[in-house]
Amino acid sequence: MEDYLQLIPLDPFYRIYFHDGTHLDYTGDSEHMKAQMAQFNPRDAQNYDRFMAQARELYKAVIDDGLGSRPFDNWSTMLNFLPRALKLKALLPAYRFAANYFKDFRHRFAFSFHPLFIGGSPFRSPAVYQMIPYLEKAGGVWFTRGGMYSVVQALERLFRELGGTVYTSHEVETITVENGRATGVVANGHHFAADAVASNADFKHTYGKLLDSRYRKKWNNRRLEKVGYGMSAFLLYLGVKKQYPRLLHHTLILSERYRELVRDIFDRRILPDDFSMYLHVPTRTDASMAPPGCESMYVLIPVANLSGGINWETMAEPFAQKVLDFLEHDFGLEGLQEAIEVKEIFTPLDFQRVRNNVLGAA
């Protein structure tokens, strides 16, 4: 891998700022974690090792024993997994799993929010996602020099070296099928034959738009309409001619509300007055991501998908302004708005228009 990417370890993995002004530097160092946790709740600190031991068992089941590589799309597979899932408490909601070990609100958040990574609610998503804290602890959290696009470039380079051809600006229109097997794709009016077809596009877009209904009896239109969708995200990309050392590479800033804010997003599907956010500041690790003395960052805020009817055509700019006002005046990033050189907004509408994500789900 070192021939293609330069990986940089992050420590702490991320910093979590809570509404009361306290913060937790989340790290893989057990003793440092327990020392921080003991300041908030000594009993929680004592339970850290027990939690991680159980998270390790989930990791072993999903990764080491290969359960994560099996599609759970039939009753037989699910029934075979059920006894072990019950023993591991893998079917509990992620938040409830964490609450069995921790009492302080900070720790319950820090060890339960991971389903949000994949657009799921911590209060509904199964505790199998609690393997992520162990995955982070065991393998670390890393950044590739040059940012995520360097991974794309590395994969393209390797693919070409293996004899592959990459076509850009070729949006796939149709997946062709013969004798029940995908045989290629049509893009820009041209048919590209293939021995196998892999799609990383939105699931419903792939089956509902790219495959003719004749070839998807299992995923017919009626079944596709019943597919549930997770949250979306509001993204604010910023180039700032100033630096903010209190922001780590990965920083979370939390609202006082956790459960109710998640309900606003997943159930009520409204745009609430408050928000929690994640900030990615790659210049904290890789100075080449911005000019000297400047900061490159993006702000990600979980929001409802488009089924809630939020009009992002009119709400995008006011919401962005509200976020910037909060960061500058409430969180304390002094002079932020005056220092902005580049600003781009990406809303659920863009997830739908640009990425073909149904309902703008992220």
Description:
The protein is of the alpha+beta class and 362 residues long. The chain folds into 3 domains: 121 residues, no CATH class; 59 residues, no CATH class; 126 residues, Guanine Nucleotide Dissociation Inhibitor, domain 2 (2-Layer Sandwich), CATH 3.30.519. It has 13 helices and 12 strands. It has a 7-stranded mixed β-sheet with strand order 3-2-9-10-11-8-12. Strands 5-6-7 form a 3-stranded antiparallel β-sheet, with no helix packed on it. Strand 6 and strand 7 form a beta hairpin. The two termini are 29 Å apart.
Radius of gyration: 22 Å
Architecture (CATH level 2) name of the largest domain: 2-Layer Sandwich
When the domains are counted, the total is 3
Relative helix content: 25-40%
Structural class call reads: alpha+beta
Gross morphology? globular
Reported by name, the CATH topology of the largest domain is: Guanine Nucleotide Dissociation Inhibitor, domain 2
Oligomer: single chain
Low-confidence stretches: none
- Strands of the largest sheet, in order across it? 3-2-9-10-11-8-12
The helix tally amounts to: 13
Average pLDDT number: 93
Strand content: 15-25%
Series of H and E elements: EEEHHHHHHEHEEEHHEEHEEHHEH
The CATH C-level name of the largest domain is Alpha Beta
The separation of the N and C termini measures 29 Å
